[in-house]
Amino acid sequence: MSDRPIDLRMWRQFVAVAQELHFGRAARSLHMTQPPLTQGIAQLEALLGVRLFERSKRSVRLSAGGAALLPQVQDLLARAQALPAVARAAADGQAGRLRLAFVSTVGYTLLPQWVRGFRERHPHVMLELIEATGDVQAEAFARGDIDAGFFLHAPGFAPAGQAHLRVASEPLTLALPAHHALALRTAAPSLREALQLPLVIFPRRIAPSLHDAIFGLYHGSGAVPQVAQEANQMQTIVNLVSAGLGVAWVPHSVRQFQRPGVSYRDLRGVRLATPDPSAALAAGTRCETSLVWAPDNDNPVLARFVAFVREQLPAAATPAANPQP
Questions:
Q1: Of 44, 100, 271, 324, which has the highest C-beta tally within 10 A?
Q2: What is the pTM of this model?
């Protein structure tokens, strides 16, 4: 027995003889003469330290070791034959891996249907989904641990140094404790009433642009935010509202998180301040979600995913100038 690597040529010779059980016919199927084939099988047996065939003047048959080895060698050769197609698929983005981060709010609406659709179209791509807040995503991008991420931000905000595609714009709604007087009455709360209540909000590092926009709403109205509690995840924020700790501004899609003890109410005529005064905001408090990726990321699967997401968006929602991955 030897530690010398066994090349595919020797395995093909073994399979040919195993299928034909005749060295002459096996040699013809391999387009070679019989003596080199006989020598090759003998060499393979010496390398393995196992007799693969029982030979006599009249017959050739597989030994117990050869019979046990045959299906595995056939599988090995089939996988080796498929490798060029695998390489081409990977280069074209039809196979490979995409590490995709997302904020929890995307999980209520867009993410499930997009993941399902992308997997149906590209079944050989492995999607690695990672729930992460905006600050955690930024650190992961810096380390090269993710390929792309969905994150929440204020309207008109663009992440520095990153390519991005806006995928959603939605109003913010007010989450109130269900037992609060403003939740129990028929009329919608006024902005003045809402701004007087204790606030449950995410830390600024999670989504700086949206945090600043919400605080800008208070400051622009001459109010001072009374932060009662901070929490990272939107589900936790809603749970704290249900406990009566305060109110929270949450994306409209969070309404699908039906937590007992919480009432969602809309306020009319509210606008969020943004760092870019030229950004056109629809009436009402809004937030946006964008798909973000490093512009120098050359993962072909990323290009496929960005193209897929772009297809899902209404033409009017897609920014005119948007870098390609």
A1: 100
A2: 0.69
